[in-house]
Amino acid sequence: MVTETDVRKQTRDIIAPLKGRQILLIPAMQAVQKKLGYLPLEAMEEIGEMASVSPNTVYGVATFYAQFRTKPVGRRRVAVCRGNACNVRGSERILEVIERALNLKVDETTPDREYSLETVACMGACALAPAMKINEETLGKLTTKTVEDLFPKKAKQEGKSEK
Amino acid sequence: MAQSNTKHQILVCQGTGCESSKSAKINQALADEIKRSGLSDTVRVKTTGCHGFCQQGPIVVIEPEGIFYTGVKEEDAPEVVKSSFVEKKPLERLLYHDPATNKAMPLYKDIPFYSQQHRLILRNCGGINPEEIEDYLARGGYTALKKAISSMEPTQVISEIQRSGLRGRGGAGFPTGKKWEAAYKAKGSPKFVVCNAGAFMDRSVLEADPHSVLEGMVIAAYATGASQGYMYVLADYHLAIKRFNLAIAEARKRNLLGKNILGSKFSFDIDISQGAGAWVCGEGRALLCSIEGKRGMPRVRPPLSVEAGLWGLPTCTNNLRTLASVPLIIDKGADWFAGIGTEGSKGTAVLGLTGKIVNNGMVEVPMGTTLRKVIFDIGGGVPGGKRFKAIQTGGPSGGCLPESALDLPVDFEALSKAGSIMGSGAIAVMDEDTCMVNAAQGFLSFCRDESCGKCVPCREGLPLMVQIIDRITAGKGKPEDMSRLVEMSETLIQGALCGLGRTAPNPVLTSIRYFRDEWEAHINEKRCPALVCKPLVNFYILPEKCQGCGICLKSCPAEAITGGKRMVHVINQSKCIKCATCLEKCPTKFSAIRKVSGETIEVPKEPIPVATGAGAK
């Protein structure tokens, strides 16, 4: 278990090399999230202190942008694109299938922290629509079939344990 | 580095599209195969950026012949090498086949997708290695910068851009020269140049030809007197960031960037600012807030950003494709550029073709080309024999135009007159299976979610409008809903602070204007003609076709189907979640599931035995 003091120390270590730059806040938040996976409250407080802004300001920025998360996420982050091209090519159906397969709603994480599900505005892979990402890997030209095949076992386990 | 006796090059696309189809492995496999075949002296494998024809990826091109291979896989490498360099006969299997005639088209230049394009901004995309500055230099790169710095005053550069008629490719189409002039005249120091790489086409260009953008930025800085530049690109666009970083390093090494560029008094440097993901940051002022490390929110103008932008200092923000056009204009002259396009819109448009279209990808055509030519001649039309219904231009806040609008030219004014926008240049094609009420709902919900929340019409108006449409698609629409939506749209157009808020109602307004019958069907008849809106559709199992195989029963996630061996299955309408799984799973030889809207089909209430002799045959 990571303690609060650990988070503070880690945060300070991560952003120390960025200090002294005028544009500190967002790059610092990006660097911390890259290491920790999300922005814990203590990390936001530390970032705020080093950037000479209030923790509220950091929190405000964190909740404004899609990239930042204030809650921990799963080891596998499934991000379904809901941009224009994907929308027209049926991303809604893809999302439904994943929601059912993982037994998750958008912005939720499985209790075992294996999967979390999110949507993104546009990931710039429009020619591959509908597309999604699992961590850094882009998967395109999805069909309900390919998506079902990606999460088959999960679907059965979760479905059964539920009932 | 190219060896002097290199005769052939194998270009392997590693744009985002092809890369996600594992093109890096194809590259390696080809390189290994060349070595194994003892061809290393004459054949060179080269990584390139996006060719634009992502639908056909991963793409491999053999130069100088121009042989175009599509859908290449790692295991194809031996055959590609053997046929191209040993047998010297193109590998038929991987060639592009004309969908109409099924004839193989070996050469890049003959494929209709390319032969009808006019590639200026995309001039180097797919042809050069974006990670090698020599490739860009070999194609005349940085000559425009040299020309500008050595023989032109900043004001001359500005007037050249003004005379060319170049307008911003980011959406609003503001004359670039005019913006540069304002930035040049603005008081304050230092000044900034910002490049906005927001749309998917921008990402592709940045990945495929980063130096053309960099050169454009340096020229813009020279003309406006800026000393610092920012490339604003989404943090998610890893490949684009990596390649632009490389480009910056290479340019610095060659004194094309940094202190005293090319020995002159002019100094300029560029940093990458990684956006954290907010659609509103495509708006100029919100983008600058984001670079400053704040929530990305637009603000009241004036003052304009060119006078008081980043940290209150003069800032010239241009779209990436605008900047990529600049070196060409300086090189070939304003008159040449002004000779392409229409009266009001000069040059070319880079369009992203997406949605229900055969050739998904990125194309470039002269302004003034008709939408019909773009969609059908270049884009290959609608796949699967479906009927074309509508196109949306410019992104989620663009209007949805019907077939009658297809003869409109791609041009800032023409599109705006029809109720849409040029916007980002994205084009989404919709076919007969698209419900225009549902489409409007989707686009509007997107804008609602992405609203920054600063001004009331957008923050409060969009959710209310979405609520009304939600009601309509749920079969609870009222006759006055349409006029209410129009009225609220007008408030938004007049009252919203930024361009994104003002254009957000476009899809709703155009959908009502051009597809009124569909709205009326939803509101008055509680019927969705395209069978899309879930609350308005029902699924039935036709007793005369069902053979009782049980596949639908097993796959139904809602356990809404009852049946048994050799029994006609029945859907419990109150349990059905209308996910269409049964429709997809029912074997085509039975095709027993019917989806309808606004009608009920008489079917048994309980499973009954399958009638013998009926159905399957």
List the helices and strands and how they pair.
The complex is a heterodimer of chains A (163) and B (617).
Chain A: H1 4-15, H2 25-36, H3 41-51, H4 55-64, E1 76-81, H5 84-88, H6 91-102, E2 108-109, E3 115-120, E4 132-134, E5 137-139, H7 144-150, H8 152-162
Parallel strand pairs in A: 1-3
Antiparallel strand pairs in A: 1-4, 2-3, 4-5
Helix pairs in contact in A: 1-2, 1-3, 2-3, 3-4
Chain B: E1 8-13, H1 16-19, H2 23-36, E2 43-48, E3 60-63, E4 67-69, H3 77-86, E5 96-97, E6 104-105, H4 112-115, H5 133-138, H6 143-151, H7 154-164, H8 176-185, E7 192-197, H9 200-208, H10 210-224, E8 228-234, H11 238-253, E9 269-275, H12 284-292, E10 315-319, H13 320-332, H14 334-338, E11 348-355, E12 361-366, H15 371-378, E13 388-393, E14 400-402, H16 412-417, E15 426-431, H17 436-450, H18 456-473, H19 481-495, H20 499-503, H21 506-514, H22 516-524, E16 537-541, H23 551-555, E17 561-562, E18 567-568, E19 570-571, H24 581-585, E20 593-597, E21 608-609
Parallel strand pairs in B: 1-2, 7-8, 7-10, 8-9, 11-15
Antiparallel strand pairs in B: 1-3, 3-4, 5-6, 11-12, 13-14, 13-15, 16-20, 17-19, 18-21
Helix pairs in contact in B: 2-3, 6-10, 6-13, 7-8, 7-10, 9-11, 10-13, 17-18, 17-21, 18-19, 19-21, 21-22
Describe it.
The complex is a heterodimer of chains A (163) and B (617). Chain A is α+β, with helices and mostly antiparallel strands and 163 residues long. Chain A is built from eight helices and five strands; from the N terminus they run H-H-H-H-E-H-H-E-E-E-E-H-H. Chain A has helices at residues 4-15, 25-36, 41-51, 55-64, 84-88, 91-102, 144-150, 152-162, and strands at residues 76-81, 108-109, 115-120, 132-134, 137-139. In chain A, strands 2-3-1-4-5 form a five-stranded mixed sheet, covered by helices on one side. In chain A, a hairpin with a 2-residue loop joins strand 4 and strand 5 (137-139). In chain A, 39% of the residues are buried. Mean pLDDT of chain A is 84; it is low at 155-163. With 617 residues, chain B is α/β, with parallel strands linked by helices. In chain B, 37% of the residues lie in helices and 15% in strands. In chain B, the strands form seven sheets. In chain B, strands 12-11-15-13-14 form a five-stranded mixed sheet. A four-stranded mixed sheet of chain B has the order 2-1-3-4, covered by helices on one side. In chain B, strands 9-8-7-10 form a four-stranded parallel sheet, sandwiched between helices. In chain B, strand 3 (60-63) and strand 4 form a beta hairpin. In chain B, helix 6 (143-151) packs parallel to helix 10, helix 17 (436-450) packs antiparallel against helix 18 and helix 19 runs antiparallel to helix 21. Chain B starts with 7 loop residues before the first strand and ends in an 8-residue tail after the last strand. Classes of the chains: A alpha+beta (163), B alpha/beta (617). Chains A and B meet through helix 2, helix 4, helix 5, helix 6 and strand 5 of A and helix 1, strand 9, helix 12, strand 11 and strand 15 of B.
